[in-house]
Amino acid sequence: MITDILKNLGLDKKESELYAMLLQLGPTRASTLAYRVKLPRTTTQNILTRLEKEDFVTKSIEKNVFLFAAVHPNSLPQMMEMKKREAVSNYNVFIEEA
Residue 51: which residues within 8 A CB-CB, separation 6 or more? Predict the structure, then answer.
């Protein structure tokens, strides 16, 4: 169910895995997350940066360490609606320019 929603929101398999693991772990370091999903730390950090830009993940600093946390899944339907509105708006602009 949640993987379908994440796919509709444009997340790929690795991004979905990281998001789901963050939901399980709660706020955690990128290195811990990388270990748990068996990805290189640098790859994990790049994915987390993308997820943060898309508002799926938040980043905080605690004792000079970055902690990442997943946004609560209850906000995913709202995010889907926003993406839908953006797509419709972009389509309308495209049609007007054509």
Answer: 11, 15, 18, 19, 57
> How many residues in total does the chain contain?
98
What is the chain's mean pLDDT, rounded?
Answer: 85
CA distance 83 to 34: 28
pLDDT in tens, 19-29: 989 989 999 99
| φ, ψ at 69 (rounded to 5°) | -140, 145
Residue spans of the chain under pLDDT 50: none
9 phi, psi to nearest 5 deg: -85, 0
Q: What long-range pairs does 30-35 form, CB within 8 A, spacing at least 24?
A: 30/66, 30/68, 33/68
Angle (nearest 5°) at CA 33 between 24 and 29: 100
What is the four-CA torsion angle of 41, 43, 49, 52, rounded to 10 degrees? -90
